[in-house]
Amino acid sequence: MGNHRAERRDLYKVAGEPTPVGGARVAGGRRKADRRQPPTGVLRRVPAIPTLIGALAIAAAAGGAIGIGGGALPSTNLQLSSGGSDAFNGTDAFNFTGDDARSRAISRDSSRQAERDAADKTLQAAVDEQSQQRDAALASLAASAQNRADEIAKNLWVLPTVGYHLTARFGQSSGLWAHLHTGLDFAAPTGTPIFAIADGVITFTGYDGSYGNKTVETLADGTEIWYAHQSEIGVTVGQHVIQSAQIGRIGSTGNTTGPHVHIEVRPGGGDPVDPFPAFVEHGVTP
Questions:
Q1: In-domain check, residue 111
Q2: Structural domain containing residue 260
Q3: Which CATH number is 172's domain given?
Q4: Distance set, CA 131 to CA 101, 137, 139, 143, 273 (Å)
Q5: Which of 77, 207, 229, 275 could, after both became Cys, cross-link 184 (CB 3.0–4.6 A)?
Q6: pTM confidence score
Q7: Could you tell me if 259 and 188 are in contact, meaning their C-beta atoms sit under 8 angstroms apart?
Q8: Could you tell me if 202 and 247 are in contact, meaning their C-beta atoms sit under 8 angstroms apart?
Q9: Do the beta carbons of residue 281 and residue 261 sit within 8 Å?
């Protein structure tokens, strides 16, 4: 125990300081140990050893840095690239792969753009070709439709006069006729124009008994149209007439009870048929 106390006392002993004289003794013959206080004065302000060591290390490092190059930092600018004079060179210093990679990327982009342009031109050419084919097909269809319309127009009939009313129909019987009525009567004032029902050729003109003054028109399909009881005939045999052309005037020649034009329809120049459905079939209703 005595040695341990001695070691503890020695921790506070400073060189040159006299060893204190033993103090008063306590009961039992032992001397009461002095309670030493930490050193005071100048030595108290001296830093601890570890602190001094750390400070010396920092000072040594700083001194070494300052000592490089004769105690002064180099005056030249810092170079962050190992490439020498071409450091940075207008490029990003991080992940920079060089001008070759950039050129290859630009070349790839240019090639892709050229391919897209070529594809666009090819597509446009195909569209133009299809458009031309469509226009040609539409033009052909329009021409065909016009031709068909012309054919239909040729086959369409018109009414033989204007301002009329029907006074007798096909198949009627009366004391006025020797047998059944063979046509359709369009009554109108004397002198009212009579028109060609369709395109055709005049194959007869003249006076024909109960029909009075009569004109016969033969159509392209051989059908004969008879116009009877005219007051005036305005065409000659062999004359080509077109639909709606005036061929005579309404009268009351022959066996009649008043001015009208008697129309007969004779397919192939044979027996007469009812003119009413024939008119309807050819686009007009009397």
A1: no
A2: 165-281
A3: 2.70.70.10
A4: 45, 10, 12, 18, 52
A5: 275
A6: 0.52
A7: yes
A8: yes
A9: no
In a domain, 158, yes or no: no
pLDDT above 70: residue 201: yes
The predicted model gives 130-153 an average pLDDT of 86
Q: Which helix (H) or strand (E) holds 278?
A: helix 275-281
CA–CA distance, 197 with 133 (Å, rounded to integer): 41
As a whole number of angstroms, the distance between CA 30 and CA 8 comes to: 18
| Residue 115 forms part of a structural domain | no
Q: What is the DSSP string of 40-51?
A: -TTGGGSPPHHH
Reported for 66-70, long-range contacts at CB under 8 A and 24+ positions apart, including other chains, are: none
In a domain, 89, yes or no: no
3-state SS, residue 282: coil
pLDDT at 284 over 50: yes
Tokens of 19: 């060893």
Find the DSSP H helices in 68-160.
Answer: 99-155
For residue 86, give both structure tokens.
């071409």
Count, residues in the chain: 286
Take residue 249 and report the two structure tokens written for it.
């005037």
For residue range 22-72, list pLDDT tens digits in order: 444 444 444 444 455 555 544 455 555 555 566 665 655 555 544 444 444
Phi, psi values for residue 40, rounded to 5°: -120, 175
Other CB atoms within a 10 A radius of the CB of residue 282 amount to: 15
In whole angstroms, give the CA distance from residue 282 to residue 286: 11
Question: For the chain, what is the domain count?
Answer: 1
- Beta partners for residue 215, in sequence order: 205, 227
DSSP E strands: which ranges in the chain?
165-168, 184-187, 193-195, 200-207, 213-218, 224-233, 240-241, 246-250, 260-266
